[in-house]
Specification:
327 residues, 22% strand, 35% helix, eight-stranded mixed sheet, alpha/beta, UDP-N-acetylmuramoyl-L-alanine:D-glutamate ligase
């Protein structure tokens, strides 16, 4: 019998500092952030072997990021010690806890990727997850997309993508859509929010966009929609839908990233995290994976900041439903 694959997930992208309101309008708390960083931490907390390829500034905030990631058992051997400063994001929360961001990005470390730096992908990587700001921001985005196109073409590594649109940073809608569609065409798995799709494709139904992205080359497209849950689409149409979990929302910071991490972990558990198997996943396994990801996202929403759950917390939250999962 062939031994089960022990997956190694490498996450590529930004690691930055979020400045989060702490009650007083003039007082902010510095927290680690960035969608790729959050996904990497979420994966590691779920017991996945995880590397992060980030450009970490050699400054006070960069050292904070490095210490935090090391404390979370995220491998940083392929990360870059960058001379540029750390990116900052100032977070605003509305009354429902929904987050908005103002970014300070000029000349910062996260966007300066060279192809030589990206060639440091660990050789035993089985899954690469990328996306967010670094995947569509000049000057480094093209080198990231070149890398994933090469990996996708090789047929050995599952490529996972989350565009994580930030309209304030994307430039024009046409430019953003063009860059994102290029990334989609070299991805086996795409996770995207309904909010992102509404900005990219006004007045186009998420299901229609998902099918369009599948025609571009994606094997599976998962759309999250906040309180409405999540849906997954294959070439044969909608494959699974899960309602959102009931939760008292503190804020939504990092919820989508926790979803991505848990979805990848669950797909690995179901032996569906390979380029050949992702588009052929059976509906029951996909339904379970969506359910796992929805619960992880809800736990993150129930507490402040991007604070993804551990595997122990997931076991408690799922109760008897966790007995069939060994994550």
């Amino acid at each position: 019998m062939k031994a089960p694959v022990r997956h190694h997930v490498t996450v590529v992208g930004e690691a930055l500092i979020d400045l989060v309101p702490s009650g007083d309008p003039l007082t902010f708390e510095a927290k680690v952030g960035g969608s790729p960083l959050n996904v990497a931490v979420g994966l590691a907390r779920l017991g996945m072997r995880t590397s992060l390829m980030a450009r970490l500034g050699d400054n006070a905030f960069g050292r904070v990021l490095r210490r935090y990631l090391e404390s979370e058992s995220v491998d940083l051997a392929a990360s870059v010690r960058a001379p540029e400063p750390t990116t900052l994001a100032v977070v605003s929360l509305d009354q429902a806890g929904n987050a908005a961001y103002d970014f300070y990005t000029d000349g910062t470390a996260d966007w300066q990727w060279s192809r030589e730096e990206l060639d440091l992908v660990p050789p035993d990587t089985t899954i690469v997850h990328f996306g967010s700001i670094s995947a569509w921001t000049d000057p480094g985005w093209l080198n990231i997309v070149d890398l994933v196109e090469e990996l996708h073409g090789g047929g050995e590594v599952l490529v996972s993508y989350d565009p994580n649109v930030r309209p304030k940073l994307c430039g024009s809608r046409d430019q953003a859509t063009s860059r994102i569609e290029r990334a989609v065409s070299s991805s086996h798995l795409v996770k995207v929010s309904a909010e992102d799709l509404a900005w990219l494709y006004p007045e186009v139904a998420p299901a229609a966009v998902a099918q369009g992205w599948i025609k571009l080359g994606a094997g599976l497209v998962v759309v999250t929609n906040g309180a409405s849950g999540a849906s997954a689409y294959r070439r044969d149409g909608i494959a699974a839908t899960r309602p959102a979990a009931s939760v008292n929302i503190v804020d939504t910071v990092g919820a989508g990233d926790s979803f991505s991490a848990a979805l990848l972990a669950a797909l690995c558990e179901a032996a569906c995290a390979s380029p050949d198997s992702i588009a052929l996943i059976e509906s029951e396994a996909l339904d379970q994976a969506l359910g796992y990801a929805v619960v992880a996202s809800s736990i993150t929403c129930s507490r402040s900041g991007a604070n993804p759950p551990t595997s122990a917390e997931m076991t408690i939250a799922l109760g008897p439903a966790s007995e069939n999962m060994s994550i």
